[in-house]
């Protein structure tokens, strides 16, 4: 049997795959957080609840309307994005000109309300969501067995993350978004509807969380607690990458997911804290994060 560092290669690569899958969700969620913070200066603590909403929308569409995975992959992010737009227009837009702490407190309270509603109606036990038949089963790579759906999650996450980064960094709309955060009055003087841009930005960040949720539904149990269990880790990822850094959110999401997977191989007891240990070390060496800009 082939060994790596005294560990069977199947076990080593299997944990790498688990780390890559977790990293895919970390990257997508931290990307949405980075977009909202970088462009709106709002620390969106409701992001985990929006991730949970995406999973539940897919589950409810299947259970009550018979709408399968592929339509739900489009419908769930749209619904969560629209909910995000409503939240931004009705509440967050009123908090932009005051201390950012109020935005954090509002989104934290909103997350508790959303989670509480779903816990009341669905309990805390998880609900299964079946893998779509097209992506069922797995592929034997010789050195390991790769579940097709998990491979699809990794590829889909990469495409979404890179596509979003390119849209924000390399397009005219993205330049308008970045400029609107730096000098909204000047941008508005050129005829750009800045409030609409900010609303769509929050909607985009929320939709990314919803997309991550529907992608996660067949991998994990659909539960009201799935967002709160993940959001603290995702915030750590954002801090390591640099608050507001979109590229940093993507890279560190995958990187820390792999680090977590490798820790489960060599020192399983530390796998739950390794991301926070890395965060502490990075903040000591570089307080702005790996990709953040120093003040």
TrEMBL record:
Keywords: Amino-acid transport, Cell membrane, Membrane, Transmembrane, Transmembrane helix, Transport. Its main location: membrane. It is found in: Cell membrane. One of its GO terms (cellular component) is plasma membrane. GO terms for biological process: amino acid transport. GO terms for molecular function: transmembrane transporter activity. The chain crosses the membrane at residues 12-39, 73-92, 101-122, 142-168, 189-218, 230-258, 270-289. It comes from the Bacteria. It holds the Pfam family BPD_transp_2. It is a multi-pass membrane protein. PANTHER family: ABC TRANSPORTER ATP-BINDING PROTEIN, BRANCHED-CHAIN AMINO ACID TRANSPORT SYSTEM PERMEASE PROTEIN LIVH. Belongs to the binding-protein-dependent transport system permease family. LivHM subfamily. This is Branched-chain amino acid ABC transporter permease. It comes from Borborobacter arsenicus.
């Amino acid at each position: 049997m082939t060994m790596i560092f005294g560990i069977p290669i199947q076990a080593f690569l299997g944990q790498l795959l688990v780390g890559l899958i977790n990293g895919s969700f970390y990257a997508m969620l931290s990307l949405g957080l980075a977009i909202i913070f970088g462009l709106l200066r709002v620390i969106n603590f409701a992001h985990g609840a929006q991730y949970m909403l995406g999973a539940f929308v897919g589950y409810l569409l299947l259970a009550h309307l018979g709408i399968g995975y592929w339509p739900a992959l489009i419908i769930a992010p749209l619904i969560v994005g629209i909910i995000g737009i409503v939240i931004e227009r009705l509440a967050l837009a009123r908090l932009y000109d005051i201390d950012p702490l109020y935005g954090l407190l509002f989104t934290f309270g909103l997350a508790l309300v959303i989670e509480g509603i779903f816990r009341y109606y669905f309990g805390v036990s998880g609900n299964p969501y079946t893998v779509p038949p097209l992506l069922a089963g797995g592929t034997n790579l010789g050195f390991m067995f790769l579940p097709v759906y998990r491979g699809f999650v990794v590829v889909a996450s990469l495409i979404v993350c890179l596509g979003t980064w390119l849209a924000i960094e390399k397009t005219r709309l993205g330049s308008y978004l970045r400029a609107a955060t730096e000098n909204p009055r000047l941008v508005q003087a050129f005829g750009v509807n800045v409030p609409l841009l900010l609303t769509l930005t929050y909607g985009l960040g929320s939709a990314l969380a919803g997309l991550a949720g529907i992608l996660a539904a067949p991998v994990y149990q659909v539960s009201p607690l799935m967002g709160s269990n993940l959001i603290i880790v995702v915030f750590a990822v954002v801090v390591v990458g640099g608050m507001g850094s979109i590229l940093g959110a993507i890279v560190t999401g995958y990187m820390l997911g792999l680090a977590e997977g490798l820790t489960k191989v060599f020192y399983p007891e530390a796998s739950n804290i390794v991301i926070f240990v890395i965060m502490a070390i990075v903040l000591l060496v570089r307080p702005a994060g790996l990709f953040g800009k120093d003040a």
